[in-house]
Write a structure and sequence with these properties.
The protein is 32% helix and 19% strand. It is an alpha+beta fold. The chain has one domain (5-336): Gcn5-related N-acetyltransferase (GNAT) (Aminopeptidase, 3-Layer(aba) Sandwich). The protein has an 8-stranded mixed sheet, sandwiched between helices. A hairpin with a 5-residue loop joins strand 2 (73-83) and strand 3. Helix 7 packs antiparallel against helix 8. The protein is globular.
Length: 344
């Protein structure tokens, strides 16, 4: 089992997590057959949305083709498959561990996670969210930077408890802005909020994912996908801010991986838009936006609404759906969640 139960944030629900640990196994993929099984499941859900890299790209990552141990940011791709007690496929997570030796920071990029419908609300999703902590700690240890000790000992984001010799573990996820017409955008964020994640304000770091399509073969202009920077500072989840360098590392580490998947020129406008905003921010530490954990806090999604976030990007990146007035959009969101269960 890859996941360490101590890495699961307490708000996930200890009893549910304990039941999930007893019910499911979670193992790292090392062979092509298991990779193909996991990829098919991911492609069925994320492929139609344009949110999944091509099969040959991820297969090459799994084989280590793109991992350069001498690079400033060393990246390793991982796929984890969950199975039930009978060995049946139950879910899948893929991610990258991205190690910056100089900064003594490992950022686990949480690419995709999928739990089959029959296993939702079982606690398996919590295991898939927490498992990359162990992978990041292992990467630090293998680089001679420590990080293999007890859960929660690493400091994150250069926090008050950190010193020159401490290592940092950051979990990073790309999430859509909240849309009142798409209930899942709030459901997913509720889950990340309960897992100890916060959002780097889009007004400070308007992140975007590159276009993963083979744009040259299609003869189309690449269109980046605006997404929010969602982070968990392992060991300092309750801290209300993140260092400027920690915030920038979200973009730098993702783009270090993307540069091996897409034309690096396609990353330039994404980088300029995001880091330009960050450069204009005054202060050494960036305040984080706490993610609501259920419908009772639904109004706190106000700064994460689609109508608020999308204007931070070039018009061509915003999609075809018109933008509502933020006040009206918040009213629609609150009305849509009146009496909701929060996806627990």
């Amino acid at each position: 089992m890859i996941v360490d139960p101590r890495d699961v944030y307490p708000a996930e629900g200890p009893e549910k997590v304990a039941r999930a640990l007893a019910r499911f196994s979670l193992e790292e993929v090392t062979d092509r057959a298991a990779f193909d099984e996991g990829y098919r499941a991911l492609d069925g859900f994320f492929g139609p949305k344009g949110e999944l890299e091509r099969h040959e790209v991820l297969a090459a990552w799994l084989a280590g083709v793109h991992t350069d141990p001498a690079a400033p940011v060393v990246m390793t791709y991982h796929m984890l498959i969950a199975r039930d007690a009978e060995g049946r496929f139950a879910g899948v997570r893929d991610c990258y561990t991205t190690l910056d030796r100089t900064a003594r920071r490992c950022v686990a990029l949480l690419s995709h996670a999928l739990v089959l419908p029959e296993h939702r609300r079982s606690g398996l999703a919590a295991l898939l969210r927490a498992a990359p902590v162990a992978l990041a700690r292992r990467a630090l240890a293998e680089a001679g930077l420590g990080g293999a000790g007890d859960a929660g000992t690493a400091t994150a984001g250069g926090g008050a408890g950190g010193g020159a010799q401490n290592t940092e573990v950051l979990l990073a996820a790309e999430m859509e802005a909240v849309d009142p017409d798409d209930r899942d955008t709030a459901v997913r964020l509720f889950a990340y909020g309960r897992a100890g994640f916060s959002v780097i304000p889009p007004a400070v770091l308007p992140y975007a994912q590159p276009d993963f399509r083979d744009t040259a073969a299609l003869g189309v202009t690449p269109i980046p996908l605006p997404l929010m920077a969602v982070v968990r500072q392992v060991g300092e989840e309750e801290r209300g801010d993140i260092s400027r360098d920690g915030a920038a590392s979200f973009l730098r580490h993702y783009q270090a991986a993307h540069a091996r998947e897409v034309d690096p020129a396609h990353l330039v406008p994404i980088r300029e838009n995001a880091l330009g905003r960050l450069a204009a921010f005054a202060g050494d530490r960036v305040p984080l936006i706490r993610i609501p954990r259920g419908p009772a806090e639904i109004a706190a999604f106000a700064p994460l609404l689609r109508s608020v976030v999308m204007p931070l990007y070039p018009p061509a990146w915003r999609g075809k759906a018109p933008l509502d007035d933020p006040t009206r959009e918040l009213e629609r969101l609150v009305a849509a969640w009146s009496g909701g269960d929060g996806g627990k």
